[in-house]
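User: Teach me something about this protein's shape.
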Amino acid sequence: MYHPGMSESMQQSGGNGARWALILALTATGCARPPAPGAPGAPPAPVQTRPAEVVAPPDPIASAVSFAWTARSTRYTLVSRTLVQVVGDSVPAGTDTITVHAAVTLAFAGRGDRRSVAGTVSDATVTAGDRLTPPGPISRQPPPPFEFSGEVGPGLATVDLPLELAADCASAAPALITAARELIPPVPAELRVGTEWRDSVTTTSCRAGVELTSIARHEYRVEALDTRLGRPAVRIRRTSALQIRGGGEQSRRPVVVDGTGRGTAVLWLDAAAGHLVEIDAGTTVMLRHQAGGRVATVEQTGSVRGILRP
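Assistant: First, the predicted structure itself:
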């Protein structure tokens, strides 16, 4: 995203013009509840999820499989990669890649049809090329281990990030939470080949003083009763439509960001064990930035893969 002094940097030649793209890539990689009303400047919270809307298959071709999240702990390896291409009337064209690795632990607890989720993100690393080195308040250093919470149930998955992290405009933590949330999708209690459902996720985050809101609308469909990592698994395909908007003021000049994107993902669920086995997701996002009367466009092609650790 833009940083203080962005307007001046955009007018200079050389590699500096593309550096701020790292902030956007960390924001848009991969999508908490809305900010509480209050005084201006109240910290945003990152994710609001609508309950899934389930559509029964018109012609079921497989016996129903029951799914419920099991009260246990699971650990995942999470890898996110984003290719960033920058063009604009005042920014030299450039391309670079950002890669994020992290370990995510999810502890599910509770009885009945709902489970609380206690999550931990640790061992995070963030690497990027020289063109995307962020100046100003954005840090390339990965955050120390941090925790988040949430809840899952039939067709339900919510994630909450501590407000102090959500309000940290220089931290990669909100982007890591967005990626980690992919590990706990909303899943109906009954699955069969052809079952479809929908949900939407709203993410609000701060980047260099600019508040961004991302809305992801997902549609899911059960494709097959498959196997993954040597175990029976339900294979699900997800398609997504993305919308990103934001605004603020830097160097006493207005900043406006808007963009759209699309994505696809394949998920494998172990219904017997009650957890996600793997997700492989990809997105393409086009972002338009206006600052001080100047315009730049960023195309981001990203992938997120989460896989269960033995």
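Now, about its shape. The first helix runs from residue 6 to 10. The chain has four helices and 15 strands. If you'd like, I can walk through any region in more detail.
User: That's plenty for now, thanks!
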